[in-house]
# Entry
Amino acid sequence: MTTIRRLSLATAAAMYVLIVIGGVVRVTGSGLGCPDWPMCHGQVIPPFEREVLIEYTHRLAASVVGLLVLATLVVAWLRYRQQRSILWPATAASVLLVFQVILGGITVLQELPPEIVTAHLATALATIAMVTLVVVSSFTGGRQEGARSRAGRAFMRFTLFTAAATYVVMLSGSLVVGEGASLACQGWPLCNGSIIPSGDAAVHIHFTHRALVALVGLAVLGVFVMAWRDFRGNPPIVKAASAALLLYAVQVVVGAGNIWSDLSQVVAAAHLAVGTAVWLAMVVLAVLAYQLPLGEPEAEEPEAPAGESRRGLRDTIRAYVALSKPRIIFLLLVTTVPAMVLAQEGMPSPWLILATLIGGTLAAGGAHAVNCYVDRDIDRVMSRTQRRPLPRHEVPPERALIFGLTLGWIGFLELAALVNVLSAMLALSALVFYVLVYSLWLKRTTPQNIVIGGAAGAIPPLVGWAAVTNSVGLPALILFAIIFMWTPPHFWALALRFQEDYRRAGVPMLPVVKGADETRREILVYTALLVGVTLLLFAVSGAGYVYLLSALLLGGLFLARAYRLWRDPERQSAMKLFHFSITYLALLFAAMVAD
# Structure
């Protein structure tokens, strides 16, 4: 299949260049550089003027693409007539190209009506998608035989939906440009200083585009999590999902750059170029998800017992609440309010505290629900986690993922609307770090997982501080450091108690990799460092003697228990330290408020 592979790759590359040139035509205002069609100023060789040459280059590139699409069709019919995954997309690309040429002519003759320009882009994106399907099929051989696991079916459906949504986002962006609404929303990520702005039609068009970008970004993140979690052994799937997520993040930054640069032509052209790359990555991923089996029958998760499949509304709600891990959320919120009090140097507004806690709860609950999705295989084999909703089949895995991502996004919106954008961005960063860095990467690869991953749990004090001051000061960073240093001795004590669980699950927690003796020594070291960091707050933040005495007393008790654990190998000592560490943190932050 070397011929069709090379030809379709060349065609896809040429079409991508054509779309990018089309973007250049649009942002430079060269759409009517050639005011007639198919000639240019009635000539085959047009005048040598900037706008004319830009538009003429676009037409020449379209001619080259037309020849390549036609060549792909001919080769497909002559040599691959029996392979539908190549023949039909090649045929569809040729038909779409005819419509594309007609729309191009109408666009010029009617002097760039926004709806025709958007239809022109829509056809171009559909055409390059068909060519991309030919490319992928030339490598995979088309739809492959084999059973698809439940995870494979869910991934295919979610990926196809996300690809379709990406297409809609691209067209909404074209409409924004066509209606002259590119700068209708000043500022980013807020629109004219508001999360839900009011204004004329241009503002609503621009804001709708931003809302769609946000929602589709959530879906792209979900696709990446599903690909990395369930199909890590399938490099094409993982690479395509990673490319889509990375390119989408770049696209968001470039989109913000449009506002920051007051619609620079270079940035505006790059926006379409990167957006088209995101579209291609999603098309590749969708085709792979459809064509590959993605799981054998034995990879299926065990079916839920018949009695557990019929659940009432109350049980369902309880299961979804359990996904958010409310006990852990409470501990996180315990560190948020004292940070707000310290930042205010008094008691902040009750409404501000409530809004911050609600947004923080939603963001943290979303992160935990996604973590439950990622860790469901581990949770099934660990006695400590077997009663969580996913191992008990109380919630389908894909719904848990969607639930978690949605909770996180609602938390971001709530904080941005009722508190400030900085606190919202910090909460969102905690979710992304916890899911992408800790859950998907560190937890299964290094015994330092909880050390580095602890940064996610240390962000709530930053959220609280930012909620009051709209900034992150040195005292807030010390609060972050306190949680960061507290996390290893807290969690390693639990890991000592359940090290056999972690060994059975294949999770490289420190007791499994380095042994219990080394873990107890590390607990003592980190506890000593923790006590030292807590004293820094007295030195730099103006905290008084109530806090200082409390930090010394609580730190001394923590050190004494860590020392006792180091000397005493009994696992009960580890659990006593684990429970005390929770009390320690709550009392330490309460002392900040009391001080």
